[in-house]
Every structure is written in structure tokens, then in C-alpha cells.
Amino acid sequence: MSKSSNQKLKLLYLYQILNQSSDEDHPITVPELIDRLGSYDIKAERKSIYDDLEALRTFGVDVQNRKGKSAGWFIGKRDFELPELKLLVDAVQSSRFITRKKSDALIHKLEGLASIHQARQLQRQVYVSQRIKVMNESIYYNVDKLHTAIAAHRVITFRYFDYNAAKQKVFRREGGRYTVSPYGLIWNNENYYLVAYSAADEQMRHYRVDKMDEIAVTCLPRQGEDRYAQFDLASYGQKHFGMFSGEEAMVTLRCENHMAGVILDRFGRDVILIPQEGDKFTVTLPVVLSPQFFGWLFGLEGNVVLTAPQWAVDTYRNKLSDVSALYP
Q1: Which residue of 27, 85, 234, 282 has the lowest C-beta tally within 10 Å?
Q2: Do 211 and 194 touch, CB atoms closer than 8 A?
Q3: In which element (H, E) is residue 249 found?
Q4: Contacts from 258-263 at CB under 8 Å and sequence distance 24+?
């Protein structure tokens, strides 16, 4: 009887079977391997299977053999261990800027890196909680375009929008295109932001990637290269609470000692904490005085107090008064 056309694919199918169906807890016996190959119209004998398994080992696949009660062959070490895949799945599911549809697609691909038995554990991870997702399905490809533009030092154009109460896009500038020089991407407060230089007003700006539409990478070289060489993306993100704009200032905060961890988590471990009397310390650092900064300060319930500069203190006091007036 002539061999089937699939016979030459025997080694590939053997690897696929082991990769998809075996792991340390689910070894496959040689008779089972022969039977599985037969389902692909591939004939195999016990001796040839042993030779093929050795060939896979030589190639670098971690094919292992267990003897005893649960005897069989299985793939041992993989590119990603199961705990690593669980971590990646949870990161994808937790990412607000990735839509639900794209999250499901990415998680399905991650499942393919494990055996079908391990994949069931990953599927349980998907339903950890009902997280809010963005509605812009193109964000996945927007990020790729932006990385391309940043690496190529090219100007980009795009349209920018908000959503109205009917969940419809409303474009800013009456649909006119923005033209900026991209510097970098920041993942902040569960959103992705593009930080870019706007030559039109000679200012650094940031834009939520899920609100960018029709991104085009131009042939124009990126502008503001001197500024880019000195630009610190991490510092920019640290100053902008919630990536809201405002006036930048060097502020001083007086904090209760037990708030040291809060300050270090927000501003990093390089900030200098200066001890004060009464179980307090002060810290001086640059921030952007946005509504989000003042909201963060208010949420700390007096354990962190803004003390300088005076104009920033006055601005905060006025905002508190304006809000208080809404609750007569």
C-alpha cells in the first residue's frame, strides 16, 4: 500500500500532538501517539516513533519520558511557563485600552502556547472580573502605527474625538486633522497615551490612543529633535496626574510619616523626604496642577497638605470653595 501524502509531515504532526495535548500531568503513550498519527492518515511503528522523539530532542524540544503508573511522553519546558501565561492573560484582560473582542483574541493566542489541559486554567482566568473596556476596536493597530512612526522619526496626522451621550464619535476641530511629532507612548491610569510635540504651538501634548482615528505616518521628519534628545518620558508621565494638562509647578507637600509609602509609590524612590517635627516630613517635587492632582490631594484627607508655592495653595483653596458652593 502506498504511503499517503501526509507521511512526509509525520515529524511535524508528532510535535503538534505533543505540544497541544501533553504536559507533565498528561503524558501520552507511544500506542496513543501512533493512533493519533493514524487520524492524520500517517502510518507509524513503535521504533520509528522513538527515533522521531529523539529527533525532536536533538532539535531542542524538551521531550520527556515518564515511566511507572502514569507512563508516557510529554513536552516539559516550554517558552512560557503556566504561571507566566496566567500573568499575561490577566494583564490583557485587565488592560482597559484593549477592547473585549481583541482581549478574547489575544487570550486565545496565549492559550495556544500551553497544552489544551493547561489552557483550561487560562480560560478560568478570563472571568476574574467584569472590567470596563474601551469601545475603539482599532486601538490595537493604532499602537502599532505609532511605534512605527516613533522608530522612524516621522510626523503623524490623525483625527481626535470624544463620545457623546449616544456613544457616537464627535470629532474635535470639526474633524480637522492634528499634525504632531510622536515622542513616546505612556500607559497611565489604565489608558494608553501618545506624548508628542506640536510644532503649531511649540508645546508638548498628549492624546489618548483610543480616541485617535485615521492615523497616518507621513514622510516628514520628526520636528523638535533637540527637545526630543532631552525629553524624559517617565518624568512627563509622573508629573501629569491622569494625563490631564495644567500649569507645572515645583510644589512642597507636608505629609504624615505613615504616608511615606504613598509618596514613594506615586513619585518614585528618588524623591527626598525631609523629616519634620510631629511625625511629619516634607517633600518638594514638580507636578502639573491639574484637577486630577487636586483630586488626589483631597483623597488623602489631610494626611498630605500642599504648603507651597502660595499661588498653588490659593488655587486649591478656590477650587475647594467652588465645589463646596455646589452643596449648599
Answers
A1: 234
A2: no
A3: strand 247-256
A4: 258/303, 259/300, 259/303, 259/304, 262/300, 262/304, 263/304
Is the pLDDT at 1 greater than 70? The verdict is no
- Which cell numbers in the block locate residue 128? 476574574
Q: Are 204 and 196 within 8 A, CB to CB?
A: yes
Burial class of residue 281 (count of CB atoms within 10 Å of its CB; 0-12, 13-18, 19+): middle
How large a percentage of the chain has pLDDT more than 70?
93
pLDDT at 55 over 80: yes
At 283-296, the pLDDT tens digits run 999 998 988 899 99
**Short-list 279, 262, 280, CA closest to 271:** 262
Rounded CA gap, 45 and 102, in Å? 43
Tell me the three cell numbers of residue 316. Answer: 486649591
Say how many residues make up the chain.
328
- Per the model's pLDDT, the better-predicted residue between 35 and 233 turns out to be 35
pLDDT tens track for 194-217:
999 998 888 889 998 888 999 999
CA proximity to 55, closest of 18, 81, 22: 18
Residues 6+ apart with CB under 8 A from 74: 18, 22, 23, 24, 26, 27, 28, 63, 64, 66
The DSSP bridge partners found for residue 288 are 248
Q: Cell 478570563: give the residue.
A: 126
* 75 SS3 class: strand
